[in-house]
Amino acid sequence: MINYFYENTAEKKIEPHVSEWLQNLITAEGKRPGDINYIFCDDEYLLKVNQDYLDHDYFTDIITFDYVKGKTISGDIFVSLQRILDNASTLSQDSEEEFRRVLAHGLLHLCGYKDKTEEEQSNMRAKEDFYLNQFKNF
Predict the structure, then answer these.
(1) Mean pLDDT score of the chain, rounded to an integer?
(2) In the chain, where are the structural domains located?
(3) What is the dihedral angle through the alpha carbons of 43, 120, 32, 15, rounded to the nearest 10 degrees?
(4) Residue 35 in 3-state DSSP?
(5) CA torsion 13→80→4→111, rounded to 10°?
(6) Rounded distance between C-alpha atoms, residue 94 and residue 86, angstroms
(7) Cβ atoms within 10 Å of 99's Cβ, excluding its own
(8) Half-sphere exposure (CA, 13 Å, Cβ side) for 110?
């Protein structure tokens, strides 16, 4: 089950087909949905999570905590809505498209994809693009 929570930010309307699309991503990757929590927040909240749990002192758009067991995908995905808007503006991207990219990015991490090396980043971006194109069918 996919849940949405809000910390230090206004609620963002999540269209019902977004959850369906995300669940489709999970099953397309050969996994099963477990408990998946998206926690939407502001930059300061996510910076504190980054400092407290990862010992990193910088802003980011997403942090994923993996609780996957076998093929069942579970985790907490912290997302800075503020950072998404800033990134969309910097990259001249539509903010909703960037929002969906980040949602997919977190799930892809839970499905086992990494993004530390250039090759991993390229593979992750290709997967994101693939699923963003799939979204157009929902």
Answers:
(1) 96
(2) 2-135
(3) 40
(4) strand
(5) 120
(6) 11
(7) 22
(8) 36
With a pLDDT cut of 70, the percent of the chain lying above it is 100
Cβ contacts of 12 within 8 Å, gap of 6 or more? 6, 40, 81, 99
**Confidence bin at 48 (pLDDT 50/70/90):** very high
Tokens of 33: 């949905």
Instruction: Determine whether 116 is exposed, middle or buried from the number of CB atoms within 10 Å of its CB (0-12, 13-18, 19+).
Output: exposed
CATH architecture of 2-135: 3-Layer(aba) Sandwich (3.40)
Cβ pair 4, 16 in contact under 8 A: no
Q: Which positions ≥6 away from 81 have C-beta within 8 Å?
A: 9, 12, 40, 41, 42, 99
Gap between the Cα atoms of 110 and 71, Å rounded: 10
The conformation of residue 137, written as its DSSP 8-state character, comes to T
